[in-house]
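User: Hey, my collaborator sent me this sequence without any context and asked if I could get a structure. I don't really work with proteins. Can you help?
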Amino acid sequence: MSGRQPNDSIRLSRRRFLQVLATTGGALMVGIRMAEATDAPLPPALLGDTFYDLGAYVRIDVDGNVLIGARDPDTGTGVATALPRIIADELDADWNRVSVLPLGLGVSDNNGQPQWTYGHQVGGTGSSIPAAWRDLRQVGAVARWLLLQAAARRLGVPANRLRCESGTVITPDGRRVTYGSLATDASQIALPGSLPALKNPASYQLIGQPCGDVDAHDIVTGLARYAIDQHDGDALVAVLVHCPWPDGNLVRVDTTDALAIKGVIKVVQLKPEPGQPWGSTVIAPAVAVLAENTWAALRGRAALKLEWKPGASGNQSSNELEQQALAVLGGQAEPTRRVRDDGNFDAAGKKAARRLGATYIQPWQAHVTAEPMNCLVRLDKDRASLVVPTQAPQKAWAVVQRLTGLAPAQIDIRVPRVGGGYGRRLDHDFVAEAVMLSMAVNKPVQLLWTREQEFTHDYYRPGCVHQLTAIIDRKRQLTGWNQRMVSASALAMRGVADDRLWTSELQAEQLPAGLIPNYRSDWYAQATAMPRGPHRGMPHVTNAFAVESFIDEVAHLMREDPLKTRLRVLGKPRQLPLGDHRMLDIGRLRNVLQLVADRIEWKNWLRTVNGLGIACWHVDGAYVAHAIEAAMQGEKLIIQRVVCAVDVGRVINPLGLEGQVAGATLDALSTALNPAITFRNGQVQQHSYKDYPLASMAQLPNDVEVITVPGERTPSGASFLAMPTAAPALANAVFRASAVRVRRLPLMKELLRLL
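Assistant: No problem. I've predicted the 3D structure and written it out in structure-token form, which is a compact way to encode the shape of the chain:
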């Protein structure tokens, strides 16, 4: 089976092995160390006296089976397939003989400080493949070099005259030796003094070729084991009741009935640690019930008698925050941060032939991951072992180390396949809770959150209000653009300097910055005690909806084809400096825009009975555009077609990229259509999917047509690339289908209000 995922586990014995270290700065260090026994799950068939390690990522047995480690957590983004294929291609491995292993946290002790074995270990942020592109190719190249040296010694042929192909080394006269037969000798060869040359891209056999997800079979058959499926024989199950107010307090607790339930062992109170940033400590005051099993823990939780007292946020509501934001934008207050100010917007306004303004409102959003927050932890005197569904195991390590004081290498964190992240698992409040509880009872603990807690105690994407103004001169040119945004920073309470809090809300180079001579962007900070944090696609998603909807309004005002308006604003293909040696490639952005327009037959945008909408955006060197066809049947919205084009440079796994783009598109449409988090008197009002409805299959399109642009540039990330443009393209299509301009999300509620 290609790209197999081992399920069985066995402990590795102590052995000498070669280690390739990828530093956090991207450089590679090569060295030799002695490995202690590890609990990393490995298939028994690949172990034994004939099994050898070639680097920290690659292991080969005498039969030619290859085990390749995937260093970044896979939250559904496909990195568990893409990253090993980068190594396997450079190694010239036979993919049909490759098994993939999630590596978990790699850390060693460097004079009391952590040294990260694998360098980058973050999933679901769009950084995995860009960070891996050179490092992991070099890992494969080093392993291939070792095998070539072993083959040269055995065959008496210079290594530079040998070539590798599908797990074999081949001589000029056609003789072949398998990697398996060379593994013993290769593991004894000293590492090269300089790093081996990388393959010519023309020689790639796996990179750029479609491949199914290595976990797909186990996922669809139910064999995949997530962190929530893990068990430790004597672990207590812990469930929590959090204070309804994040800044509230526990006034009274009666545990008598809870402790009387069979199987309930203890009730423990938890409090956030003063001075610790959001995401690294308990999210709110809580009472935990620890029991011998989940059922007893939940019954004990229900039997608790609790009285809570609200904090300063007790009278706050989401509606109140929205009205405050509108009042700020209606006044003359100075912005908290002037993000960008090109030209002279005020002077341009005095020469305006036409002026257009609009306000866009977007709600607070929850993450609603499929797998609720959970953590299995065992603490011994000199060891902490955890199984955590995290996007950032190094951040989880920092929480554990702070609470336990253990040395870096004494903390072991395993990360199985993660049941969704969306930014929620970049925070580790639930890890802090599990560790605190394990310390309190001196036993292993499996912490489980309920679905209700997922809704009521999240680090939300903050709601925001955008006010946009466009200036059009007498030559029908867009000469001025002003965007004013009010929001509560997602970086607040996280140790970020005040003058950087805007960076989670706006980007200085977002469209149409640099394309309009008089461009201004302001951010106004809003204060609230509601927890907030990273969310999939921030800040691109919220800004693209406002910007790409508004540019559509500008086109309508000028009675112009919205595609032509966008292309005219973008201008001719060129490289536009963004700072930090980054460039915006206008040609690539125009190309994805034109591709979706051609595929959806945009030439008929005025003649079709349905509505067509379009939008484009750029994210960290990648480019995306959506075109959507929608129709109205009474009060029912039908999304007929969705086309998305992406340009990420070199594509590692086209099939994986297509799946990621389609999934992100559907996620973005679902997020735009229905759900919103609201709070009243400081308490979140949504407790389940019934209150926070994701889109049904009937509301979503039958298919998402994905166009991937082939390229040879260094690959960019794509985990949320398709998120920003789906919602504005839909809103623009809805306008042409219904003549209703939706400026407030969720879209369906606002559309039905305006019809």
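In plain terms: The chain has a mean pLDDT of 92. You can pass these tokens on to your collaborator as they are.
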